[in-house]
């Protein structure tokens, strides 16, 4: 039986008084998911300040047989960073590992601690006239290690790829306390297994990422934002193809939203505006960026949209005339997320399908959820340029919120059946965590699950790294 007091004393000796929290009021923020779906317990939240301290903490927990829940900014949407209610697990927060270690502008790379907040990393790259292209709503809170561990996506995946594609090297503390230093900044390194791939998207179940080498890019010199009314998702996908061709594939962001969720934002979120005079069933919010200045860049976009109007793919459009106007349009993207809470219960799905099947997914999923729950209000939006739809479902008007949310698993299963039939994924960018792990036998073959379990058993034979997450 573990002597918890002795372990906590040992951890205190490693990280010092500033590095360990045991009082309930100090631990509270680390034990609950921000949406309120998961709340756990832990004897302590440990906050090491260096990779060496992380390694010593992990070694001590491994020796004591005490499991560890690694935690970054705690912005997970699937409960991956929250301990279970039994309170056996130590929460290991990376928040004090927050140094920008170096920036190599000529190599277009930066090396950072895992606890660096995304916004901090983006700003540090910008100071060197470079771009770190990851962009998502939680950028002021989420941390680099968590983004890598969940293989986060965001709004610029279409142009730059998800987090997995932005990582060149990793530093990882293994479940026995050893440190693997894979902080290489090479674009070509063909020397066997690419070990870093094991830890990206593993959600802390195979080790703890403590540092990373990230790819940087030239900063855009031009940016054009357009808000476009379209008659259907089919038209939106056709418009995307046209814009990619017309611009030489310089479409950076391409978001879709339907009229209902725009009306939610207009109704509930101060500062929301309706950019066009006449309502339309669907809208596209897109950004194109160029690395050089050209007088013809805006003309190109206007011409492409004009041709799309003639082809009956576009009903109306407005182009931002300034950075301020562009900011107002992109504010809508965050406002639609905020607005859903004012409309009662919202059952959320983060799914992806091939881009060519987005329209079919929306048609079939809408019919399926309406059959399962008459009056349900689909509010689809998201990074449709990469096939990722945030397919959220607001409760029927007048229905009891608790009764509706009790049907979460049932209704998500209805959606997932459509997703899988179209060759899609039930988790596009949020991960599996606790929330979706019981779906894994339905979406992974027996061979895939066996391989995943073999990797887990090899790297973490004691099963102490974020147990009960990802694998059923």
TrEMBL record:
Which UniProt key words apply to this protein? FAD, Flavoprotein
Please name the Pfam families in this protein's record: FAD-oxidase_C, FAD_binding_4
Q: Which family does it belong to?
A: Belongs to the FAD-binding oxidoreductase/transferase type 4 family.
Q: Which residues does the UniProt record annotate as the domain FAD-binding PCMH-type? A: 38-219
The UniProt entry, under InterPro entries, shows: FAD-bd_oxidored_4_C, FAD-bd_PCMH, FAD-bd_PCMH-like_sf, FAD-bd_PCMH_sub1, FAD-bd_PCMH_sub2, FAD-linked_Oxase-like_C, FAD-oxidored/transferase_4, Oxid_FAD_bind_N
Q: Can you name this protein?
A: FAD-binding oxidoreductase
- Enumerate the PANTHER family for this protein: BLL6224 PROTEIN, D-2-HYDROXYGLUTARATE DEHYDROGENASE, MITOCHONDRIAL
> Superkingdom of the source?
Bacteria
